[in-house]
Structure formats: C-alpha cells, structure tokens
C-alpha cells in the first residue's frame, strides 16, 4: 500500500477525470432543473452541491476511460448513478428520520418529508431518462437490477436491523443493497458502454462490488472506533439507533445467555439505559469483533484489488487499485 | 352513449381481457415476491389485492389487442403500469398523510412511512425490470418520460395546491402528472408493442391523455357534488385539505376582493372555521363553477372518443369509446 502518496487516490482520479466530471456536473444541473416545480432544484441543489466525493460517478468515468472509451455516454451514466445515489439519500433520510447528513441539516428537516419523497422520485425518473438516452438495453438491464437490489436491501435492512437472527450473510445482502449494488453497477456500466470484453466487464463488476462492501464495512466499523471529528458521527450512533452491524453481529453470534439477554433488551426491544453502550463495547472487546470486522474489510479490499488487476495496465487502474486500500486505510 | 347496456364498459373490457388479466395478476404476484424481505409482499398484497378496477393495465392490454397484438409483452407492460400506479399510491399516502384509501386503512397507517417509501421504491424498480424485458427502447423512453411527468406533477401539486395563483393551465399540468400521464403511457405502449402505425400510436396516446384528464376532473368534481356512499369520500375533503381543484380555481378566477380574502384565508393560510365549506359551496354556486367543471370533463371525454374513433373498427374500440362516456357518466 502506497501510503507515501501526496495525493489521495480519489483526488488523483478527480484530477485525471476533471474534464468529464465538469460535464457530469453540468448535466446534473441541467437535468435537475424543472420549469414548473422550483422546489425540485432547491432540494436537490442542497444535496448535490453539498460536496461529497462524487465517488460513484467517478467510478463510472474511470471504468469507461480505463477501457479506452471516448464517447459521451459515460458522462450520462455517471450523472445517472449520481442521481440514483441522491434519490436514495433523500428517501433514506425520511426513513431514518435523520436531521443531519455530512454535518448539514437534511432536506426532510429543511423542507418536509413530502419534498424528500417526491423529489427523490423525480431524480429516479430523471436518472431513468438519462440511461435510456444511451440506447443500451444491457446498461438498462444492469441498472434495473441494481435498483431492485438497492430497494430490496433497504426494505431488508428495515426489518433485519433490529432482529438478532440477522447473521453475516443477511448483513452482506443489506450491504450489497445499500452500498455495493450501486458501486458495482457504476463500474460495470462503464465497462459495458466502452465495449469491454466479457472478462473485463466481470472484473469491473467484481471490483465495484468488493470496493462497496469494503467501504460499507469500514463505515460500520468506524461507528464504533472512529473519531467524531473525522467521521462526523458520534461513536455508537448505530447502537443507539438499534442498527445491527457487523461488529455487533459477530458479538451476538458468540454471546452467552446473559449477553444475549443484553442484546435482546438493547437492540431488539430498544430499552437502552445509561452505560449500555460501554457494556456493548466491552462485549465487542471480549470477542475482539472490531479486529475481526477490520480483517473482513481488508479482505474485501484485497478482493477489489485482485479484480482490478485483471484489467490491462493503465494509470487509472493504479488509482482504482490504491482506492481500495484507501477506503480501509482509515481503519488501519 | 349506450346507457341501456347491462354491463359497464370496464366490466365488458374485463371479460374480453380475462385471460390476459389472469396472466397480469399472476405476474404481479410473482414479481412482488421477495425471498429476503417478507415485508414487501405484505404491504403490496394489501394494495394490489385491494380490488380497484385495474383500469390502467386493462388499457394497455386493450390497446395492444385492438392493434392485433398476440405476444407476451403486453402482459409485462400491463403489470409494469400497475406497479408504477401502486408505487405512486404508496408514496402519495405518505405525502398526504392519508389514513384511508378505498375505505381501507393505508399501508403507512398499518405499517409505517418507512415501509411505504421503500416498498414504493421496490415496486418502481420491479416495474423497471419488467419493461426492460420487452427489449423495446421506445417503450422505455415513453415510460421514462411518463415517470418524470408523474414525479414533476406530484411536486408541482405539493406547492401549487395551496397557491391561489394556480390557474387552469397549472391545474391541467398537475392532472396530467397525477393521472393522465400514466393513462396515456398505458395506451401508447400498448400500441407501440403491437407495432401500430404512427397515427395509431398517436391516437392511442391522445385517447389515454384525454380519458385520464376527464377521469381526474370528474374525481375532483365529485368531491364537491358526490355522495359519500358511492365515492367513499366526504363532500368537501379537498377544501378541508386545502387542495385547489378546478371548481374552486374557476371561482377564484372570478372572485371579488372580499371573496378573494375568503379563499386566501381558507386555502392559502388554511385558517378554516365552521361554515366555511358551505360558504365555499355558495361561491361555486354563484359562478356556476360545478356546471362549468362538468362541461370541461365532458369535453375531455368527447376528445377521448374522437381519438379512439381514429382506430380501425373493433369490438374493443367500442368498449374504449363507451368507457370515456362512463368516466363522466357519474356526473351527468
């Protein structure tokens, strides 16, 4: 892992893709406009301009460029992917009743749940129009399947998050739904639109899938070991919100009867008391589940690196390779 | 208008399309299943099995059959259209904070807003997969555009409904979004999948558009002149919910200063008092706006009939023709 780099891998990608990302941003601005409903750009501007790393559209552009693509459709697909991501954020905030995202008030707090639901729907329909413009049925098929995986994962999370029967395989499905499905669709459609070989398309899919899983596991781990200043989250938010994530799932799997009763009370029944977070952390410590979770994240990052090395050598391949290290570097 | 018919036009359509509708229902059941998230079929079954006339999928099947189509894609598109409809109902109920639909508790009351938002998203993604299976980019283009019109209309309605500047042209846009866009897409894709001529496709689009507008104007009128027993709504619900619909828009357009102040207080500011509904009804009576609204609904029904008569003679053409009369017959 090249920790001596002056620039982070996503910054290097942003530099090399600057011209295309400029077009993506322009397309996003144009397509989120609505002559008749000014509320739409108000709500979306709040989110789309909020910064974020634009990781997903960059993955599409990077995959296409890595495969030698020079046409305009990659820009459309990158905007598509960002619209889908933004729409899911809007709907997630309604579902989670969130008040903050990236340190700013959420749309549902600034406006209302109605705006978040309907503007999310509008962005989905805009993304749909953009992808149809590529004229590629295969791209449409990939994105339709990704959308279904995302939606199913969200519903699954809603019921599984507080259910102690949720094991690592269900967790993985949820993670694919909430994060990895869009990462893998983003890289896969980049390859498809560039006319990559079947092996290349598969490698790009595998890369996005593993990268997304590593990214989400890292995120869930940081909830318990992160520093509020760098993550923008307080330690233990997931515990307080009764969300079963990997560090707890691993502790539940090994729990004694007494420990299990603790998890039933705090997660399933949500009857939390002073000191419960500390006790939960102690149980994770007892079974060393934070380290085991970190190992899992690293293993998925390694899979992502192995997948991208199936592609021909290219400066972008090196950046994507390092990006896999970067998403878990925060943990190590 | 053939008022001597023993069976209503939508019942005749249901009879002649019974075999195809059976396949549509089977497809809906299969595709709303989710191995991993049992909450999904629970929520959708509640809505999909709730009855309703299944008017939209029947329009797709009828349009295709009228054009001589005998393949399987019409069934997929009919299920697509019903999924889109059901998804918008789920999201509408969150937006409207509705407690009842068709005399039954809504999903957001039985489960929660989360389920309504996420299961709606799931149905959208399922509809998207179904339409991709037809392999027709033109069908995808039509449905993508219809989705955007629907979403934009919903957002527009949210802001326009309580804004007295909302005139008849804005009302028409909202009506196209909330009702006519899916009706016209339903009939248009039926023609496209059947390989109808361009003139035929246009006539089917025009029929669905005008039928949808007539249907929605009739619905809005019945809110003020209907009988709670047949409509399942109480007279004046739209007034109490501060929704500007055509009968009120026509009264606002002719209001004296004093009357305008009444509309500002009751609709824009929502400060309603005992007796306000009766006063609103008196103002609509004064300008005879219920009759003018009925005339508009009849005019759109006449446009729908003229459009369908552009198609070649066929038993289904006669039923669609009579259906246009039927949607406004409740008013006359």
Question: Could you characterize what this model shows?
Answer:
Chain A is an all-alpha fold and 332 residues long. Chain A has one domain: Farnesyl Diphosphate Synthase (Orthogonal Bundle). The first copy, chain A, is built from 17 helices and two strands. Chain A has a two-stranded antiparallel ribbon with strand order 1-2. In chain A, strand 1 and strand 2 form a beta hairpin. The model of chain A has no long low-confidence stretch (mean pLDDT 89). At the A-B interface, helix 5, helix 7 and helix 8 of A face helix 5, helix 7 and helix 8 of B.
Architecture blueprint of SSEs:
The structure is a homodimer of 332-residue chains.
Chain A: H1 9-16, H2 18-32, H3 39-48, H4 55-66, H5 73-96, E1 100-101, E2 104-105, H6 107-110, H7 113-133, H8 137-160, H9 168-193, H10 198-225, H11 228-231, H12 237-240, H13 246-253, H14 257-268, H15 276-286, H16 289-308, H17 315-329
Antiparallel strand pairs in A: 1-2
Helix pairs in contact in A: 1-17, 2-5, 3-7, 4-5, 4-9, 4-17, 5-7, 5-9, 8-9, 9-10, 10-16, 10-17, 13-15, 13-16, 16-17
The largest β sheet of chain A comes out as:
2 strands, antiparallel
Estimated structural class of chain A:
mainly alpha
Biggest interface? A-B, 42 and 42 residues
The number of domains of chain A is 1
User: Which CATH first-tier class of chain A would you pick?
Assistant: Mainly Alpha
Describe the strand arrangement of the main beta sheet of chain A, using strand numbers.
Answer: 1-2
Separate helix tally of chain A:
17
CATH topology of chain A: Farnesyl Diphosphate Synthase
CATH architecture identity of chain A: Orthogonal Bundle
Number of strands of chain A: 2
State which percent range the strand residues of chain A make up. Answer: under 5%
Q: CATH superfamily membership of chain A, which one? A: Farnesyl Diphosphate Synthase
Report helical residue fraction of chain A.
over 70%
Average pLDDT of chain A, to the nearest integer? 89
